[in-house]
Structures are given as C-alpha cells and as structure tokens.
Design goal:
Elements: E1 13-17, E2 34-41, E3 44-52, H1 64-73, E4 79-81, H2 87-95, E5 99-101, H3 109-117
Parallel strand pairs: 1-4, 4-5
Antiparallel strand pairs: 1-2, 2-3
C-alpha cells in the first residue's frame, strides 16, 4: 500500500492502534478506551499521541453513539489496527474512510504496520 494521507504531505499518514501497552495489537475494537496514534513516513513509524474514547461494546451490543464518537476521534487516520472487530464496526470504519486492519492480532505494532504497507515483515 502506498503511503497516502489527507494531510498536506503525501508521504505521511496516520494510523490508530488498539493496544494496551503500545507494543502489541491486543485490543478488540469494542473494548478500547484509548487508541494510540502513529505517524508513518519514509523514516518509519512514530508514536504521536493517545486518544481517549469510551468503549463501544456494551455487553453483547454496541452503542452506536459511542461508535460515531470514535469515528470522529480517528477521522484523520487512514487505518485502525485491532486484534478483532465486528462486521458492523468494520463497515462503518470503511464508510468513514478508515481501513480496519485485523490481520495482525498480537503482532508487534511497528512490524504489523510495516508489513501492512508492504515495507517489512512482522
């Protein structure tokens, strides 16, 4: 995948990651209380910030209002890496222009992002 972004620099993008420790992708979309956001550019993967959200999963169903708040919080991200996500949230992420990536559960964050971009191996 080519590095693209809605930002002014076409060589930079932002991705969000569902991780409890910032090392591995280990959270289900519905249980995340803070997404870690990374800048990805030609020099590598760089942690930018943590964005707090209220978790979407409400014991067997998802709170649609909270999901929309999450989508707004991640609006500048090109992708969201999660250990797992349901089909409904994945569809809404895609509609919002955010690619849901659940192919790397429990992988190291940087390795997974680079593999997804086709620049390295996890």
């Amino acid at each position: 995948m080519a590095i693209e972004s809605p930002e002014s620099d076409p060589e930079t993008l932002r991705v969000a990651v569902a991780s409890t420790d910032g090392r591995v992708i280990d959270m289900h979309f519905g249980h995340v209380e803070a997404f870690r956001v990374y800048r990805v550019d030609v020099t590598g993967v760089h942690f930018l910030e943590s964005r707090d959200v209220e978790h979407y999963c409400q014991g067997g169903y998802g709170d649609e209002d909270k999901r929309e708040v999450i989508l707004r919080a991640l609006a500048d991200c090109s992708a969201l890496f999660v250990a797992r996500a349901g089909e409904g949230p994945k569809a809404r992420l895609r509609e919002a222009g955010i690619e849901p990536v659940d192919a790397f559960p429990f992988a190291l964050v940087e390795s997974a992002i680079l593999e997804w971009l086709g620049q390295g191996a996890a």
